[in-house]
Amino acid sequence: MGVHVVSKLDNRQHASFDFEVAQSELSESSVRIRTQLISLTSNNLTYALMGAFLHWWDAYPVSEAYPAPYNDSAAWGIVPAWGYAAVEETTIPELPKGTLLYGFWPTASAPTDLKLKRGSPEGHWIETSDHRQQLMPLYNRYTVIPTLNPISELTALNPLSDSARDELDRMAWTTLFLGGVAGFVLSEYVFSSNPSQPPIHPLGNQPGLHWTLSDGDLSSAVVVNLAASTKTARVFSYYLSRKSGSSAPLGLLQVTSAVSRIKEADRNLPSSVPSNVIGYGDIGSKESAKWLAGCKASKIVIVDFGGRGNALDDTLSLIKNHAELQSCKVVIVKVGNEQKVYSIEELIAGRAAMEELGKVQFNTSGVQDTILESVGPEAYFATRGAQWEKWLDDRHLSVPGMQIVFGSGVSGADGVEGGWDRLCHGQVRAEEGLVYKMQ
Questions:
Q1: CATH number for the domain harbouring residue 142
Q2: What is the total count of domains within the chain?
Q3: Matching InterPro entries, A to Z (predicted)?
Q4: Mean pLDDT score of the chain, rounded to an integer?
Q5: Exposure of 89 by Cβ count < 10 A (0-12 exposed, 13-18 middle, 19+ buried)?
Q6: Strand partners, 268
Q7: How far apart are CA 38 and CA 59, in angstroms?
Q8: pTM summary value
Q9: First to last CA, the chain
Q10: What does the DSSP assignment read for 359-398?
Q11: Does 367 fall in a domain?
Q12: Hey, what's the torsion of the CAs at 99, 102, 105, 108, to 10 degrees?
């Protein structure tokens, strides 16, 4: 059984190895799972980058039984990934063998134990192991997934039936886009102008954080998406473009390395929100300034999903140097990072820029936690689930040209090991979706 580990000191250093788990008796209220289908995206680089600070390393600690040096938890860790796993053994009657769960899994094909308690709504389960209690709630929630085909057929390497192929495709897109959670809550709850549903601070409502109706109101704003071809940005743009009336922004400027693809998406799914798509090299152009000024906005909301290079600085310079834009209020919401491994110097500079520019950090778990407190899990998950199914129906229109690239297992160029190497070197193209069958 394969395990993939990453150096905590230098995330570009990684390794995979085979490891046979000694089977012990399963504890009470526990399941033994095996990862079945996961994806690798830029989010996984963030989990490694901030693994110590935000406790992502705690999800699946390396075992002391691993071969040296990979048994040293101070130096090595397992980067989790989103996707699906199957129950192989269980002491929970409601989760029999063969149950498929969606959630946060180890990048390993070896079996792993989870300690679970019933969550809300029905079919949701919460991980309660002591070592995971500092992990944000989003990453401790697991959901039962009914399937039309056995998971063994869905993850088989041989040709699939038509129904299995269709089901696997929807599952693969869900792993890649993380069920659309971040883009959905950012559009519908952070940028909400509904008085009956006050907007939620991008970090979630906490003491000392202020996010008013005015902050969430986009009716007098133009939104700038940096790294518009990233997966979270595509989902955000989809929901944002479906806003209407006073909830909609005056315009959406999408900055991307995949200009033709985003323009095609805009043609496929026309909306009432005027959109302009430009490449990184065109941020400072007269045409971009003219388009922004033409929106007649009093506020410019820059949502940074991981813009390349100096994209943010170039955008701010454009606003500062154009007379018709200088009076606009500028709000910067930081969502993601560029697809690369950051040096210590870059991390320090990034933290300084957060404070200097007054960036507002976005955190999916914090926002979802606030939603669950305010509207309740039943209503929220029903709404989110229905909206995600609609997005899946439109996925090829919303993200034209996206190709699912299936890999297999942990080791080698075709496995998680090869995918991690490509992520670290910025080699995964916007139109590629890396998904791994782990059996």
A1: 3.90.180
A2: 2
A3: DUF2855
A4: 94
A5: middle
A6: none
A7: 16
A8: 0.94
A9: 9
A10: -EE--HHHHHHHHHHHH-HHHHHHHHHHHHHHHHHTHHHH
A11: no
A12: 50
